[in-house]
Amino acid sequence: MESRWFSNTMFVVILGNAVILGWATYGGAALPYLRIAERVIIGVFVIEMALKLYAWRGKFWKDSWNWFDFGVVVISLIPAVGPFAVLRILRVLRILRLITAVPQMRQIIGALFKAVPGMGTVIGLLFIVIYVSAILGQQMFGEDVPEFFGDLGTTLYTMFLLMTTENWPDVSDAVLEQHPYAWIFFVLYIVLTAFIMLNLVIGVIVTAMEQEYSEGRWEEDQELELVQHNQVMLKLEELTAQVQDLQGRIQAQDRAPHADHSVPPAAPSANGTHGVPPLSSAEGPGPETESREVD
Questions:
Q1: DSSP secondary structure string, the chain?
Q2: How far apart are CA 82 and CA 86, in angstroms?
Q3: Which of 1, 53, 261, 285 has the fewest CB atoms within 10 Å, i.e. the most exposed one?
Q4: Architecture of domain 106-234
Q5: pLDDT at position 156, please?
Q6: What tens digit of pLDDT does each residue of 197-212 get?
Q7: How far is Cα 292 from Cα 295, in angstroms, rounded to an integer?
Q8: C-alpha separations of 126 from 119, 228, 264 in Å
Q9: How far apart are CA 179 and CA 140, in angstroms?
């Protein structure tokens, strides 16, 4: 399930599904074939989920991305007719499985979720600045330029457009005709919101992404160290076995010469003597026999 070829295969299937969903919007004679291809892809997704559930069992539900994939596959199985047919629109969510198929995309999404607390603080501060500026703008320019500062709602929308620098010259030109020094208000507001606050939001996101990448790199390093440690221990076990085998052979060779040089006890002969061979006729009589014959 975690092999590279399996991940690459599923990535190609998800990408093909995205192409089919986009192609189907044109209709035409190819639509029936596209529906058949879509059913085949759904079948592949179901098989993938079944294999993951069988391989990972309880661990499957510990990953939030697996929950997302499982939900997308379940939505894909909803029939095109019936009370839940409207949910078939959500089949486009299958394209989002590209996020789960690419680790880098998962890291970016994870970083965005981790940046939410910090972004919430900056966005809250930004909203305070916009709200205060809207009240000031409505009080200063509401009577003369009601199309942009007529009430609080209209002024808030105008402040949002100014923050994004969208058509802000139209707003400033309309106000400057009645209030020549209003450019100070617009310049300060745009610098404070568009350049400072938004950069703070970007900074929070970048910091969260760096932390996410650092954690991911640390986990990869730990896994690599574990693999290397296991390989080293396996080599040590092999070397230990080889050393023990060599020691056994050396000890066996040391014992072998002593066994070769030792003389085994002689077996008793037929005449009752132990290890003394009888004299042969060729050797002749001994000295005692010769002396007796002389006498």
A1: --SHHHHHHHHHHHHHHHHHHHHHTT-STTHHHHHHHHHHHHHHHHHHHHHHHHHHGGGGGG-HHHHHHHHHHHHHTS-SSSTTGGGGGGGGGGGGHHHHH-HHHHHHHHHHHHHHHHHHHHHHHHHHHHHHHHHHHHHHHTTT-HHHHSSHHHHHHHHHHHHTTSSHHHHHHHHHTT-GGGHHHHHHHHIIIIIIIHHHHHHHHHHHHHHHHHHHHHHHHHHHHHHHHHHHHHHHHHHHHHHHHHHHHHHHHHHHHHHHHPPPPPPB-TTS-BS-PPPPTTT---HHHHHHHH-
A2: 9
A3: 261
A4: Orthogonal Bundle (1.10)
A5: 94
A6: 888 888 888 888 888 7
A7: 5
A8: 10, 50, 105
A9: 9
Total-model pTM: 0.53
pLDDT digits (tens, 9 = 90+) for 256-287: 655 555 555 555 555 544 444 554 444 445 44
pLDDT tens string 79-108: 655 566 666 677 777 788 888 777 778 878
Euclidean distance between CA atoms 29 and 32, whole angstroms: 7
Q: Which residue has the higher pLDDT, 291 or 250?
A: 250
Q: For residue 234, give both structure tokens.
A: 């396996």
Residue ranges per structural domain of the chain: 4-101, 106-234
Task: Give me 108's structure tokens.
Answer: 């970016």
Burial 162-201 (b: 16+ CB within 10 A, else e): bbeeeebeebbebbeeeeeebeebbeebbeebeeebeebe
Burial class (CB in 10 A: 0-12, 13-18, 19+), 129: middle
Q: Could you tell me the two tokens for 166?
A: 């969208």
